[in-house]
Amino acid sequence: MKNKRKIVLYIATSLDGYIATCDDSLEWLFKVEGEGDNGISEFYDTVDTILMGKRTYDWVIENAEGDFPYNDKECYVFSRSAHKDNNDVKFVNGDVVNLTNQLKNEEGKNIWLVGGGELLLSFIKEKLVDEIIVTVAPTLIGKGIPLFKEDDYQLELMLKGVRRFNQFVELSYEVRR
Ligand SMILES: NC(=O)c1ccc[n+]([C@@H]2O[C@H](COP(=O)([O-])OP(=O)(O)OC[C@H]3O[C@@H](n4cnc5c(N)ncnc54)[C@H](OP(=O)(O)O)[C@@H]3O)[C@@H](O)[C@H]2O)c1
């Protein structure tokens, strides 16, 4: 039997657990000295579908130079309000469980959960994430948008791998079921 596709959170974080400053800046991240592309293209090849929250989508649109960067993948943006789909993305409203189950039952590569922290919280609370890969920047930013929002949940993980990309550390975990 073929392996079921997985939902993989692949995200960069400051050492103190933030994915962006309060004003959505990632400058602190981009100035870290990594190595090559820090494993991004290798990971990118393992997925064919991308999930993100509306605030992350807005950030990508504002900061993309040229074409939408994920236009070779099937891309879903979660929002609780209605938006018109475009050539790059489909907007989905609400039920993370339904869409995830539907996608997992289809054939395909893994599914990249891009974030941000708010959308991730829904996935964590519903125990929908299969793997977590965090790339940790050697930076403390003190406050900002948390990777893991405070709430009632507990998730046990199994460490699968540790890699170093110069100043970055990549930690890979499997979620225990
Ligand atoms: N460091 C990194 O690798 C990384 C990765 C990703 C994002 N980021 C950064 O993180 C920031 C955005 O993160 P964030 O946590 O503020 O926002 P987010 O999770 O990207 O988006 C939040 C929005 O998504 C929608 N949403 C969230 N959960 C939903 C659900 N269960 N069902 C339906 N819609 C849902 C809502 O949109 P509506 O308000 O439209 O209803 C909500 O306002 C940006 O600055 C981005 O650059 C950093």
What does it look like?
There is one protein chain. By secondary structure, this protein is of the alpha/beta class. It has one domain (8-16, 35-175): Dihydrofolate Reductase, subunit A, CATH 3.40.430. Helix content is 21%, strand content 33%. It is built from 5 helices and 10 strands. The protein has an 8-stranded mixed beta sheet. Helix 3 links the parallel strand 3 (47-53) and strand 4. The longest helix is centred in the first third of the chain and has 10 residues, at 54-63. The radius of gyration is 16 Å and the shape is globular. The two termini are 20 Å apart. The site of NADP nicotinamide-adenine-dinucleotide phosphate has 26 residues, from strand 1, strand 2, helix 3, strand 6 and helix 5.
Q: Return the CATH architecture.
A: 3-Layer(aba) Sandwich
How many beta-strand elements? 10
Class by alpha and beta content: alpha/beta
Radius of gyration: 16 Å
Tally of contiguous helical segments:
5
Q: Give every kind of bound small molecule, once each.
A: NADP nicotinamide-adenine-dinucleotide phosphate
Biggest sheet architecture: 8 strands, mixed
* CATH topology title: Dihydrofolate Reductase, subunit A
The run of helices and strands is EEHHEHEEHEHEEEE
How far is it from the N-terminal to the C-terminal residue, by CA? 20 Å
**Major sheet strand order:** 5-4-3-6-1-7-10-9
- Superfamily (CATH H level) name: Dihydrofolate Reductase, subunit A
Mean pLDDT: 96
Quaternary: single chain
- Helical residue percent band: 10-25%
